[in-house]
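for the writeup, i need someone to sanity check this before i put it in the appendix. the sequnce is what the collaborator sent (i think, or maybe the updated version? ugh). structure was predicted straight from it, no edits. if anything looks off just tell me and ill rerun, i have time this weekend
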Amino acid sequence: MQKTTRFIFYASLLFNFMAIVYFTPKIIRKLSTPESTVISESYWMQRDKYLNTLPIDTNSIVLIGTSLTHNFEIQETAGPAVKNRGINGDNLIGIINRLKNVTDAKPKRIILEAGINDIGDLNHTNDQIITNYKKLLSAIQNTTPETDLIITSLFPVADSSERMKTYCSPETNLQINELNKKLESLSNKYNARFLNFHKSFTLNNELNSKYSMDGVHLSAEGYNLWQKLILPYLN
């Protein structure tokens, strides 16, 4: 009986130790990456459900995107026609899956900001990202062909960041540069406009530190600059 109890005790210790070794790095990675690896499916679904209760009509200008858009309070200065439909951590497939409520309203204009989470979180290649962009653009134009469509460039990122390690590297900036070129070409094929704000946020081939708080997300100065650049397209 004592041998059995002792065996169970040591087996339990070994199991707990193995669990700590296995799960601790995963928890640390999630805590250090405040994007779609942390955003739970239930959060995405609840955010999408809430956004679907908000009005959109044929006079609306709808910004769809990631946390960069989500945290952009542009409607405060651009007026009630501007609708923010950003979701923290979203990627192109997520946007495609929640697009129907927007396109069914046949808004005046849709402005897309997407791709950074496909790179930093999903580790997608540019070819994969362009394939999903084609699906997104086709879905919009098939449902609401009269809607004016705008694609914005991806912002640069910092070459390094303790908080956003999977997003920030010189290699990521090279990928972003190439992706922006592909998006500009793609926009021509889909009769969409391409707004390239990348250079305005760049210093020494990476994101200017004064425009960001963590190497990816924009600071107050970053949002003020973005607001200045995009305001002409919000009327």
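The domain at 42-233 is CATH 3.40.50.1110 (Rossmann fold). Confidence is low (pLDDT under 50) at residues 23-38.
thx in advance!!
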